[in-house]
Amino acid sequence: MDNPADSPKSLTESNPFLPDPDLLETLHVSDYQTIYDESIRDPEQFWGKIAEDFRWSRKWDRVLDWNPKTYEARWFSGSLSNITTNMLDRHIDEGLSNKVALIAVADDGSERVYTYGRIMDETNRLCHSFAEMGLKKGDRVTIFLPPTPEQVISMIACARSGLVHTVVFSGFSAGALKSRMEDSEPRLLITADCAYRRGKRIALLDTAREAKKAITSLEKTIVIRRENPDLELETGEIPFDSLLKKHASSGFFKAVDCTTDDPLFILYTSGTTGKPKGIVHTHPGYMVGTFLTTRWVFNIHNDDVFFCVADPGWITGHSYIVYGPLLNGATVLLAEGSPDYPDPGRWWHLVEKYRVTVFYSTPTAIRLQMRLGKQWPEKYDLSSLRLLGSVGEPINPEAWLWFREVTGGRLPIMDTWWQTETGMHMITPLPGVPLVPGSATRPFPGVVADVVNRQGESVAPGEAGFVIVRQPWPSMFRTVYGDPERYRKYWEEIPGVYFSGDSAKRDHHGLFHMIGRVDDVIKVAGHRLGTAEVESALVSHPCVSEAAVIGKPDELKGEVIKAFVILRKDAERTPDLELRIRQHVREELGAIAMPDEIEITEWLPRTRSGKIMRRVLKARELGLPEGDTSTLED
Ligand code: 6R9
Fold it and tell me: What residues flank ligand 1, with Cβ below 6 Å?
């Protein structure tokens, strides 16, 4: 389909989807433009007003203390707070103790239900255990768990104790877990004996044990025993259940006060170098940003049941399973497992069973459902749904339209563009605005985003450019852990503005149409990977001497990985060599990073200084013009 941004008569003029009249009556924000204009006239006043509604141990001196030289943004500077006070204490004091906070459905369909009161209770017990272990504010804790209540509670307990969690997606391999721990130097690791996927047991503890061998900072490991409650543990490993039992009557644990500089978490994400970067978020700004975006974008009210299909191991799960929804006092559905197990109706079944009102999914998942067929959603009663969301990669209009059609044909879809670094939605519709399939529409209030050229000037409508943000926003990342230089790079690419790494077009109505990354980041099924990471996994295979990786468009996953490798002279070329190399990447990084295709080659295009030109490989692969190749060596 042509990009609507290409034609002056855009879809907005011809055929936007207007909100349902019933929906309009329930909106928190009924007039986007007025609120947006107001928010931009004085962003500090705008965000300050939102922050007034939170509990603070000490209020801020300044809403924003911005240093344009170092790009350091200290939101709510001078304040003392803890995000969990606003997720738990506040709601419980307001009588929500018995309200369901979390419904967790495991791979086998078994369910566990947690009220706000129960989350508070288990969080407190865990906080007492952390204190007993001598953990102190600022210490790092690695959480390597499947999407389960224990994962959520571990995150919250760290936050409440002033500890810095670094959640590692449970699908990662020992190598990926190890490198993340080497960088963050945790004192504690929290893991489980196993995860489950499609009825299969995944030996998580073996992976964790393999990874932690070399981590000298690590003192203890807490293990959740899901399969065998009597599983024998090794020295330094403590069963989670024994800690909960031990502190059953230790009582309330007061949340540790945090300043604007105290990290809440580090989350590793891929960049252009081989080493993942530890994106650091802090309490007060992240709290205000995720609270408001959850509330306004998803139009959250007291009776909402919010289902986000991400894993809390990614930023989407941090912001829109754990922090944002619980700050809003909502009920969250957390699902382990896969969308097509035990059958392709799994998610629709969960929507029906738990009367889900807001369903936040990904383009790849929607396209997968399209492939599996309409008969699956049609089997279920989806009438509880009020609103849909999409995240992680550009959504093609066909998938957008299908998602809307199978859910009743009336629901608004919020195509939310944002990143690990931004912490919160940045470019996204609000439920009352006219929608155009495939467009993330406009910036969220308080966010000054634009599409620009290399000089930072806005490009003309219909022209592609870089997506940037001109002013700080509350839940922006504060630094790259241990690498402030890498943080500054985001602001130096085009001096003074935040450079996202994405390209987009704006149409004649100012709507954003996202295109994709302009750097060496690939999004495979919405998972963020760096070409360099995959390349270094490839060259660690004994048969591979050099490798280059590109993202190749794919109908289902958006992009898949294609790797070009040069073999070592002495490599034995067995028929299964490609497969073995692919398996090797899986072992090094995890299944999500496994290349779809390996092409063995004798030659890779390089600049005269020896850098591999992936751009040229990609152009050749796709049969596109190669662009400027003047730096290409002979
Ligand atoms: C939240 C998340 C960030 C990258 C981002 C962009 C892509 C995310 C998108 C989207 C088009 C959307 N992306 N949402 N592209 N439309 N609605 O995915 O964070 O894993 O850090 O990835 O994802 O390319 O730069 P993260």
Answer: 269, 315-316, 391-394, 415-420, 440, 500-502, 514, 517, 523, 528
| ipTM exceeding 0.95, yes/no | yes
For residue 522, report the distance from its CA to the centre of ligand 1, in Å.
10
In the sheet where 164-167 sits, what is the strand order?
A: 237-239, 220-224, 188-192, 140-144, 164-167, 263-269, 277-282, 479-480
Which ligand 1 atom is at minimum distance from the Cα of 420? 21
Distance CA 53, CA 47 (A): 11
Residue 351 parent element (H or E): helix 346-354
- Strand blocks (E) in 256-357: 263-269, 277-282, 305-308, 331-335
CA 20, 22, 27, 31 torsion: positive or negative? positive
Classify residue 434 as exposed, middle or buried by CB count within 10 Å of its CB (0-12, 13-18, 19+): middle
- Give the closest residue (by CA) to ligand 1 atom 4: 419
Q: Which residue has the tokens 């034995």?
A: 572
The answer to whether the beta carbons of residues 531 and 614 sit under 8 Å apart is: yes
CATH architecture of 524-622: 2-Layer Sandwich (3.30)
pLDDT at 625: 84
Q: 464-515: per-residue pLDDT in tens?
A: 999 999 999 999 999 999 999 999 999 999 999 999 999 999 998 999 999 9
pLDDT at res. 9: 53
What is the 419 CA–ligand 1 centroid distance (Å)? 5
Residue 391 CA, ligand 1 centroid: distance in Å: 7
Confirm if 143 and 188 have CB atoms less than 8 A apart: no
> 3-state DSSP helix/strand/coil percent for the chain, to nearest 5?
30, 25, 40
* Residues constituting the chain: 634
Kindly report the pTM of this predicted structure.
0.96
Number of H helices, E strands in the chain: 22, 28
Other CB atoms within 10 Å distance of the CB of residue 8: 10
User: Which class is 116-246 in CATH?
Assistant: alpha beta
Q: What is the pLDDT of residues 519-564, one digit of tens each?
A: 999 999 999 999 999 999 999 999 999 999 999 999 999 999 999 9
Question: Start-end ranges of CATH 3.40.50.12780 in the chain?
Answer: 21-81+262-516
Task: Give the rounded distance of the alpha carbon of 405 from its chain centre.
Answer: 26
Cα 126 to ligand 1 centroid, rounded to whole Å: 33
Of the options 3.40.630.30, 3.40.50.12780, 1.10.260.40, 1.10.530.10, the CATH number for the domain spanning 21-81+262-516: 3.40.50.12780
Q: Please list the residue range(s) of the chain that carry CATH number 3.40.50.980.
A: 116-246
User: Confidence band (pLDDT; 50, 70, 90) for 628?
Assistant: confident
